[in-house]
Amino acid sequence: MDPVRLAAIIEPTLYRSWKAREMHEYDGWQLRFADGFARRCNSVYPAGQSTLPILEKLQVCRRWYAQRGLDLLVRQTPASEDGLDEVLAASGFTLECPTDVMVGSVGKGGGELEVTPVPTREWWATTARLWGFDLSSGGGWTGIINRIELPAGFVCIDGEAAGLAIVDGEWMGLFEVIVAPGARRRGLGSIVTDSLLTWGRGIGAQRAYLQVVAENTPAIKMYSRLGFEHAYSYWYRRDRRPIP
């Protein structure tokens, strides 16, 4: 499928799955805020074409994020507004975190792990430790997990690996899949992923997507072995300039 069409389908699904605490619609753009955790939940998503001048809109967005203590960050995909990336680059916005979106089928294999509909205590502890997330507050990462409203599945392996999946209609997103450094090359990431795919298929998902930083070659190779293929890329543009 064409990358523009795929991005137009997957991006809204991703945002319904991984919800920001605050969202503001502004002339076809979505401004999202989640206490500073996760770029995708603390950035502008240009979901539609502008009717207002782009530079004027950027100034409004800069102030909106400054009021929340953040830089202005704009997420760019193949489905983003025509010419926007060129305007951002010319305005001094710096490129940040190029990421690949990969898609695949939910497969026919059998998952080995129990998938729970809510995060267990072990899942919270393992995921927080491996990613270095903070469990001490209700905002940030914990807030995003607690805001999940769609069907979700959580898996954990003896404190060494973890992951979660969220199903939205025929699509399933894989999130937070991680393996402890000392436990890698033992197939745990594949076991986590396959278990989540099996669970998703069982509740009606037909296709799956995931996001992986473009320079994470080992993860891309693992997902390729599981049948995932590159669908499209996204990236961010950040404006660190102070408000005049």
> With helices defined by DSSP (H or I, 4 residues minimum), what is the helix count?
7
User: Which term fits the overall shape?
Assistant: globular
Helix content: 25-40%
- Given as residue ranges, the uncertain stretches (5+ residues, pLDDT < 50) are none
Task: Identify the strand order in the major beta sheet.
Answer: 4-10-5-9-8-7-6
The main β sheet shows up as: 7 strands, mixed
**What is the straight-line distance between the termini?**
44 Å
Radius of gyration: 18 Å
Which class of secondary structure composition applies to the elements?
alpha+beta
H-E order: HEEEHEHEHHEEEHEHE
Average predicted local confidence, pLDDT: 91
Strand content: 25-35%
Number of strands: 10
Commentary on this structure:
- By secondary structure, the protein is of the alpha+beta class.
- The chain folds into 2 domains: 103 residues, no CATH class; 99 residues, Gcn5-related N-acetyltransferase (GNAT) (Aminopeptidase).
- The protein has a 7-stranded mixed beta sheet with strand order 4-10-5-9-8-7-6, sandwiched between helices.
- Strand 8, helix 6 and strand 9 form a beta-alpha-beta unit.
- The radius of gyration is 18 Å and the shape is globular.
- The chain starts with a helix and ends in a 5-residue tail after the last strand.
- The model has no long low-confidence stretch (mean pLDDT 91).
